[in-house]
């Protein structure tokens, strides 16, 4: 929760600084909107991830969330993906692809973990328990 408080404080500070720099009334509204958008984007970046329980999977990305039950998962496979950027060579990105019964494929990036193989084994174990 400390990170959420920090994100909120930074967002409010950014909005306040923009509001102080500008003086007309419509610019205050613009500053408030920019601050709220920044706070919302920061929150979505904070809560993104792969959430798993005995009933199903929730994949939260920055601009969308996908939830499905284990029973709808036909196949699951780990995958390495390439990143663009300066640190792409140092840290390969990994994701788990879920092939669903309705034909969709949901890609779930796994951020900042050293034990990716352990996560994949746990996901496969949970999936098999439902069957």
Describe this structure in words.
There is one protein chain. Helix 1 (2-21) runs antiparallel to helix 2. The mean pLDDT is 80. The chain contains three helices and six strands; from the N terminus they run H-H-E-E-E-E-E-E-H. It has helices at residues 2-21, 25-47, 116-130; strands at residues 49-52, 56-60, 65-69, 73-81, 93-100, 105-110. The protein is α+β, with helices and mostly antiparallel strands and 131 residues long. Strands 1-2-3 form a three-stranded antiparallel sheet, with no helix packed on it. The chain has a three-stranded antiparallel sheet with strand order 4-5-6, with helices on one face. The radius of gyration is 20 Å and the shape is elongated. It starts with a helix and ends with a helix.
Secondary structure: elements and pairs:
Elements: H1 2-21, H2 25-47, E1 49-52, E2 56-60, E3 65-69, E4 73-81, E5 93-100, E6 105-110, H3 116-130
Antiparallel strand pairs: 1-2, 2-3, 4-5, 5-6
What structural category arises from helix and sheet content? alpha+beta
Quantity of strands, as a count? 6
Strand content: 25-35%
Whole-number mean pLDDT? 80
Radius of gyration: 20 Å
Q: How many distinct helices?
A: 3
- Low-pLDDT stretches are none
- In helices, the fraction of residues equals 40-55%
Measured between the Cα atoms of the first and last residue, the distance is 36 Å
Q: What are the salient characteristics of this protein?
A:
alpha+beta, 3 helices, 44% helix, elongated, 6 strands, 131 residues, three-stranded antiparallel β-sheet, single chain
């Amino acid at each position: 929760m400390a990170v959420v408080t920090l994100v909120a404080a930074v967002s409010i500070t950014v909005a306040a600084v923009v509001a102080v720099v500008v003086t007309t009334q419509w610019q205050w509204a613009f500053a408030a909107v920019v601050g709220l958008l920044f706070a919302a984007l920061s929150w979505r970046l904070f809560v993104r991830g792969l959430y798993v329980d005995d009933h199903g999977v929730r994949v939260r990305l920055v601009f969308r969330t996908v939830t499905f039950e284990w029973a709808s998962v036909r196949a699951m496979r780990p995958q390495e993906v390439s990143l663009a950027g300066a640190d792409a060579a140092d840290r390969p990105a990994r994701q788990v692809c879920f092939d669903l019964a309705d034909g969709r494929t949901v890609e779930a990036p796994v951020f900042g973990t050293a034990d990716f193989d352990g996560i994949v084994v746990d996901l496969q174990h949970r999936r098999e328990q439902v069957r």
